[in-house]
Amino acid sequence: MRARMIAAAAASALGAGMLAANPTSAQVQDEPARAEATAPTTAGPGASVETAPDGTPYERYVFASFHGGDDGGRNGEQIWLSASKGNDPFNWYELNYDEGTAVSQPILQTVNPPQGQTGLRDPSLIRSADGEKFFLLATDLKTYQDGQSWSYRQSRGSRNLVVYESTDLVNWSDARFVKVEDDSAGNVWAPEAFYDESRGEYIVFWASNLYPDENIATRNTSQISYNRIRISTTKDFVTFTEPKTWVNLDRSTGRQGWGMIDSTMIATDDRIYRLTKDENGFRVLLQYISSLEDLHDTWGDEETEPYAVNKNPITPLTREPNAWTMVGNPNGSSKWQIPGLNGGNLEGPLVFKDNAEDMYYVFIDYASGGGYVAWRAPSMDVPPNEWEYLGQSWCNTTGLSSTCNAQDPTSPYWSLPVSPRHGSVIPVTLEEWETLMAGYNSPVHVEASLVTTDGDAVSEDEWLNEAPELEVTWTDFNDTGLAPAWLRLVEGHNDGARVVSAERITSGIAQGMTMPVNAVEGTNWAQLEYRDASLGGDAVMLWTPDVSYKLDTTAPVVGATVDGFELSVSVTDPLPAGVRENSGVASCEYRVGDGAWAACADTVDLGASISDRTVTVVATDNAGNETTVQVVAQNELPETIDELAAGNHMPRSVVRDLQQFLDAAADAEADGDQAETLRQLRRLAAYVAAANISKIDAEAWGTLWPVLLDYLTPQSDVATLQQRVGDLTRSGDIATSTGRDLQEHLTAAAAAPTAQERRTHLQALRADVASARANKVSQDAKTALLALIDAALAS
């Protein structure tokens, strides 16, 4: 698994309108009338919103979480904030470190001074619909050293929500405790909210056990009820409607008190999705609706008072789902499951959309195994059991551990925040992220980007033909003036094992410095491990998100040949040994002499020429490697004539005559007069065709004529007649004088400037052949010639 995320311009993630908050002193109001149904344009976690309400793109993420009950000997039921390393949802900085130490502190707590239950869990961090502020909802619960059972906490627990507000994620209001359930409830857990745009209000939902009476002091804590998902609405986070039951499924097989908890929602362009933990099976289920009109529909039985406790037998998941449809198998078997793990308590799901691509993430709290594990899919419609499992990162960035045992030995270092438990992720703008980083004591933010040796930026996954370098820059939001304490290269090649350099760079660390990488042919990634001297030195393990590139130093192989006037080209991009991928051929072009470049083809007709021509073929691959091949298209006529003369196949006088035609054609070609060039070549062909055996013997004629035909392709029918008349004359089937007369017609036809004049000369030729006496043209010769003449006239 590669945890790398492309750092790019932001797109959509949690919607601007997704908001949950419950101010203090809740005032119950009557349920408003149901509004007309509209398309689900709600903004919520994962809504298709590319920008913040003011139009600023989202480019970073913020993660709110708690650490669990016992956090290394301290109360971990407090709220921590973490900021993403760039636009990467798989790498995080925990914030608010004690200066000079490796221990981060919570940003929100109710321990000192004591408030409520003196514990905060399950933070839901959300942005207001108008984008003016942030709200954080939390569960009022402490389990750390309280000496109580989970049954007690669900029967005599807090009925409050805890609400904080902030305009910048740094400066927060005091905690507001809101009693949203009366004393018939035994708990209020994991509050979240969702903006219903059709009604202009927020629905707020949580999990509660309900009991037949309100006498908390005498409630039997050994016989708990079961958790329902409860729902209320608010427009101003001061006044709330009376809660009602939203999900009502008793999942107990006996009297265990199993129900449904930890609901969260996300909106896409056309649907709203709800994730909920089924306590029977410790699994997270996924459902959807297609209209806001169905948002308030109850799954399960309508609630009646006095509230029922443990309705047996077990209520099936298929019981009255109303408009909510299960994604995958309706019986809940299509669930997120850690590979190789039979069971395991999975709860506290969070869901969000990637800022830069069409990808959704689900993080689920593996409560019995150390915190969040991660999955992703390109659509929320993918059944949970088909999501890509990304694993659980054991990279710990606090003083509790200084090692990183990423689950996949081939992956870069990556990590969710430190020991994250049930929380939430929202997208933020770059300015909001910078404010957050500067507002708390945060690690130095180091960025490693790829550049060429000339300093040009390299795009993610770009093909290169030489090894790049890593350019190192950093931002010290705490203004300590310190550079990173040391740097170390971490790399991966062709899906092989992660390679951690044994060498640390401790000197010469400067802004904008470059570091070499150990590039190999194929796919590569690189990142830097580093330390912040102001945060406990080596105890806080830090690293940059990885950057990927591809190396191809092998140039394409080009084959080019010329046969007559036909160019044949082949291009391949060889694959180096041990590499599964190379860049591939990007382009192939050729040109003749200094002419214009044209795209290659398997075969190309270069056209006739009486001059030797150099053909250049250039092929380039996607990495920029280039191969150039040159071949010569030779003019065979002069060489052929010289060879025949040297062999005494024709007298010097004939050679001189032929050379005069060639010189005239060459002069015309040099002047760019193609028509005159062709005319001189046709005159040469007519001369050869009419020559008797005393001028050009049969062997010379059979050698020279095929070469001439390559130059006379546009007049092949006339040239064929010239050849046939010549053959028949030499064989005696046509009298020599008659042959000369017929060749004159053919010479005139070959040189004719228009099709009509050519036709006139061919018709005169036909008349002479048809009327010739047997002693001038034999019957066999007449039959053969008339067929060829008629074919030429038809064309």
Keywords:
795 residues; alpha+beta; six-stranded mixed beta sheet; five-stranded mixed beta sheet; 39 strands
What does this structure look like?
- By secondary structure, this protein is an alpha+beta fold.
- It is built from 10 helices and 39 strands.
- Strands 25, 27, 28, 30, 31 and 32 form a 6-stranded mixed beta sheet that branches. Strands 9-10-11-13-17 form a 5-stranded mixed beta sheet, with no helix packed on it.
- Helix 5 runs parallel beside helix 7, helix 7 (716-731) packs antiparallel against helix 8 and helix 8 (736-751) runs antiparallel to helix 9 (755-771).
- The longest helix has 19 residues, at 652-670.
Oligomer: single chain
Global mean pLDDT: 86
Rg over CA atoms = 42 Å
First-to-last CA distance: 67 Å
Decide which structural class fits the backbone: alpha+beta
Q: Strand-residue fraction?
A: 25-35%
Count every beta strand, where a strand is a DSSP E run of 2 or more residues: 39
Q: What is the helix content? A: 10-25%
* Overall shape: elongated
Sheet having the most strands: 6 strands, mixed
- Put simply, the count of helices is 10
Low-confidence stretches: 1-49, 396-402
